[in-house]
Amino acid sequence: MTKEELENENIIEVRNLTKNFHDLTAVDNISFGVKKGEIFAFLGPNGAGKTTTIKMITTLLSPSAGEIRINGYDAQKDQNEVRRSFGIVFQDPSLDDELTAYENMEFHGMLYKVPKDVLKERIENLLRFVELWDRKNDLVKHFSGGMKRRLEIARGFIHHPKILFLDEPTLGLDPQTRNHIWDYIRNLNKEEGITVFFTTHNMQEAERIADKIAIIDHGKIVTQGNSEELKLQTKTSSLEDAFLELTGHDIRDEQVNGVDRMRMHRRTMRR
Amino acid sequence: MSAIYVLWIRQLKRHFRSKSRMLGSIAQPLLYLVALGMGFGPIYQKAGGGSYIQFLAPGIISMSILFTAIFSGIEIIWDRQFGFLKETLVAPVPRLEIMIGRTLGGATVATLQGIIVFFIACLIGFRPVNLALLPLSFVFMFLIAILFTAFGTTIASVLEDMQGFQLIMNFLVMPLYFLSGALFPLDGLPKTMGFIASIDPLSYGVDGLRGTLVNGTHFGLFKDFLVLGIVISVLLSLGSYLFSKIQV
């Protein structure tokens, strides 16, 4: 491969990806690619299959069919290489409540083998950045929801991976913090060339930040492009309208409960 | 290596930070020692068995190691429910290392727990017969600890929520404990009981511990050691395999 081809190669390559839970198809034969250094927004209503897709890409869930290549590695065969390539901020909490804020950060840094001196400095900077430095020795179980969220995001930035996955990172945060965090992410993207893959329900956010957008609904990718292309395609003036035009106005809560129920059912029945 | 270390230290921090857990882990064995030890003491003596506390203490030490170890292993279910498991599973660390770190952490906690109960027993009248064998007792404590932490991890890898937990307690952990010879001598048991005790891995742990603390072994120390070693290898392999297959 020439240098140019390498640069043009997609750092995330998903082909014909499918995931079934029993007879329910959560992700239905989707394909997309994300270029190196791109900020990619993955949008869709509740229960559309966003989180399931992210779980498969990040090796937490194995696909029913299809192929995923991350940073050139197969997400099923070279799991350790793939895991070395990305960092992730999950949608739901993943902190250890019985550890302090500092210990949670330290734990992460040591798992990701960040050198000790770099780690110390980064933890301090990041905890200051999310305004938790004076609470660093408090157990996380005493934190409010917003504080936990901030800590979780800060933890995701401790190591600098090639790809950063952010599953609704700014959910439940006030606008100040949100902007603050997006500035930081954009900066990481620009300075270190980190590819960003994120989901959100905030369309202004997606419109402002993403280079490219894919919309998923009922497990299928409805459309992909930048926000101008999406607006043009739907003859609308904002991404929010384009999104509604593409995915309809029905409320999807039932669906997400359905998937959850299936998963719960699967959990209790399995083995 | 650093991954094994952080997971190990995490188990220790979590355990020794939880005051209720610490308190429970002291109060429960104390209750058993006092109630059973003093309650059955006279009749045990009358039957010609000697001091029941001497006999019982290794059993209660084993019990508290068993419970602590199983809980440590089974903590994976909590981690799954509170989301922390994901954080470790996406890390660029072989899952085997994660499993080893957790298991060593749980086993260390359980062994320390056993040592604490050993001292409590000494306070209420228990006396190890041969102090030179004491280090070997600690080895047996660690073997029991590692066996049942691995056992807990194995179970937790296939259970996905807490609903199965009561079942595990009632149909696995309690029988393992009550049928092991922790509370009664294995010599001269009815055939079926003797057989059941002989397929309970805890029996060998209790026996090894009793053998090194008060010289009363039923199977022989070598056999105890061998059986524990084999069961540990099997459970560690099985646990690692199942743990590597966990999906969230």
Give an overview of the whole structure.
The complex is a heterodimer of chains A (271) and B (248). Chain A is an alpha/beta fold and 271 residues long. Chain A has helices at 3-8, 50-57, 79-85, 101-111, 116-129, 145-156, 175-192, 203-209, 227-234, 239-247, 253-269; strands spanning 10-21, 24-35, 39-43, 65-70, 73-74, 86-89, 163-167, 195-199, 212-217, 220-225. In chain A, 43% of the residues lie in helices and 23% in strands. The longest helix of chain A has 18 residues, at 175-192. Residues 254-271 of chain A have low confidence and may be disordered. Chain B is mainly alpha-helical. Chain B has one domain (2-244). Chain B has ten helices and no strands. In chain B, helix 3 (52-81) runs antiparallel to helix 5 (95-123). The longest helix of chain B is centred in the N-terminal third of the chain and has 30 residues, at 52-81. The relative contact order of chain B is 0.14. The chains are: A alpha/beta (271), B mainly alpha (248). The interface between A and B is medium-sized, with 34 and 29 residues.
Kindly provide the name of the CATH class of chain A.
Answer: Alpha Beta
Give me the count of strands of chain B: 0
Overall spatial form of chain B: globular
Q: Into how many domains do the coordinates of chain B divide? A: 1
Q: Assign a percent range to the helix content of chain A.
A: 40-55%
- How large is the radius of gyration of chain B? 18 Å
Q: If helices are DSSP runs of H or I spanning 4 or more residues, what is the number of helices of chain B?
A: 10
Quick synopsis:
The complex is a heterodimer of chains A (271) and B (248). Helices cover 43% and strands 23% of the residues of chain A. Chain A is of the alpha/beta class and 271 residues long.
Helix and strand arrangement:
The complex is a heterodimer of chains A (271) and B (248).
Chain A: H1 3-8, E1 10-21, E2 24-35, E3 39-43, H2 50-57, E4 65-70, E5 73-74, H3 79-85, E6 86-89, H4 101-111, H5 116-129, H6 145-156, E7 163-167, H7 175-192, E8 195-199, H8 203-209, E9 212-217, E10 220-225, H9 227-234, H10 239-247, H11 253-269
Helix pairs in contact in A: 4-5, 4-6, 9-10
Chain B: H1 2-17, H2 19-46, H3 52-81, H4 84-89, H5 95-123, H6 134-158, H7 165-178, H8 191-198, H9 201-214, H10 221-244
